[in-house]
Recover the amino acids of this structure.
């Protein structure tokens, strides 16, 4: 395997805990949690692992400004802004949507961390992102573009090593369940399973994408990450497990299922989820347990990808008051 540049600033390894009360409450398999909400960078999250590699790549290119995009309450943008501050980069965030009346949740933290914020309508995001990049380049700011969700081969490789970390902790669950959206986390886990000999099932709960689209993206991205590491591996979309039955009313719209999941994890385990990603994935996990998808003797690991600041966003706070 070819080593690739990495800046080590995440708090790793993240702990694995048994959710005893939740497992008992649901009456199904033993449920574990991998605490990637505790990676340490500005309230943590899964993107911190990816940023260890992405910032190393930016430094190798002589970059001085990081540019990325996401939703107004993007966890990825918040962690990118924090990493930029820590390592002395400027940071420009292009957020899809209109400026809210007040900053809260992740958006509040973006400003606190010193990021410059540009807004664009969702349908104009790609065009505006190119304009922002070109303008920064013309101004001599040496920009480096980090893709949406940090989901390119470099970012995905981080989660191959995260899977290795889990195995080195002596944990080999029958299932790994998590929120999947831009595909980088799932691609890395799928690649890591192949490289490090994990034989359990890796199930992404789609937050927003149809299963077929996400399966193809993950398969392609896993192969690209393998190439980056010098491993010639191929994946077919059929090998990627995605459940898209829990997308509800759409991205960022927290319904009754997400609200129940957030409350259940909080009241059973003192564990905070967010209403967009982990809340939706946990809602899927809870429903699958109730439907008998997992056998009682199995271990199911919920990979907590973070996102807690979104609970405090004005758009969601009233759901939990």
């Amino acid at each position: 395997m070819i080593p690739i540049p990495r800046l080590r600033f995440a708090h790793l390894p993240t702990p694995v805990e048994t959710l005893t009360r939740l497992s008992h409450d649901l009456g199904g398999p033993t449920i574990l949690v991998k605490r990637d909400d505790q990676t340490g960078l500005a309230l943590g999250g899964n993107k911190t692992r990816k940023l260890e590699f992405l910032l190393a790549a930016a430094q190798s290119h002589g970059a001085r400004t990081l540019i990325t995009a996401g939703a107004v309450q993007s966890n990825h943008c918040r962690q990118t802004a924090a990493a930029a501050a820590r390592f002395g980069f400027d940071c420009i965030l292009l957020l899809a949507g209109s400026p809210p009346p007040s900053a809260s949740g992740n958006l509040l933290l973006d400003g606190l961390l010193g990021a410059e914020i540009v807004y664009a309508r969702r349908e104009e995001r790609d065009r505006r992102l190119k304009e922002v990049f070109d303008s920064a380049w013309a101004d001599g700011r040496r920009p480096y573009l980090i893709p949406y969700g940090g989901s390119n081969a470099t970012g995905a490789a981080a989660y191959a090593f995260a899977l290795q970390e889990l195995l080195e902790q002596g944990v080999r669950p029958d299932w790994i369940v998590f929120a999947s959206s831009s595909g980088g986390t799932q691609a890395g886990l799928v690649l890591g399973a192949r490289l490090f000999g994990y034989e359990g099932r890796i199930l992404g709960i789609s937050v927003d994408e149809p299963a077929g689209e996400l399966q193809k993206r993950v398969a392609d991205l896993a192969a690209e990450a393998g190439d980056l590491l010098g491993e010639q591996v191929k994946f077919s979309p059929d090998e990627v497990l995605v459940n898209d039955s829990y997308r509800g009313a759409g991205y960022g719209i927290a319904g009754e299922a997400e609200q129940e999941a957030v409350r259940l994890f909080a009241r059973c385990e003192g564990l905070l989820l967010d209403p967009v990603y982990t809340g939706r994935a946990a809602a899927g996990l809870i429903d699958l347990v109730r439907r008998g998808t997992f056998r009682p003797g199995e271990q199911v690991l919920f990979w907590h990808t973070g996102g807690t600041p979104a609970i405090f966003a004005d758009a969601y706070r009233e759901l939990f008051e």
About this structure: The chain has a mean pLDDT of 97. The chain has two domains: 16-45+152-320, 47-150. The longest helix spans residues 211-228. Residues 79 and 243 are 27 Å apart (CA to CA).
